Amino acid sequence: MAKHRMLSHSSSSGVTWSQRIRWYGYKGNWIGENLAVGQWSAATTVNAWINSAPHRANLLNGHYRVVGLGVVKGVYAGRWAYYITADFGGP
Fold this sequence. Notes:
Blueprint: H1 17-23, E1 30-39, H2 42-50, H3 53-60, E2 66-76, E3 79-90
Antiparallel strand pairs: 1-3, 2-3
């Protein structure tokens, strides 16, 4: 996402996040993804997610047992920003 300066659950070629998770071998039945860009800390990111119903639902979903996090610095909307991805999974 940072390379292409975009924030989306799908790649620039149209591949969805759920397709990517499956391609990399995740077999669990429960999957979810939260994205953020432009937040300045973990605390501000989680606060933004808590104040968004779909993101909050992922954070509080009791089916999720594993999480993968990715953070990278890139340019977004003409300024430096952190791109943050949280992928959730469960059996």
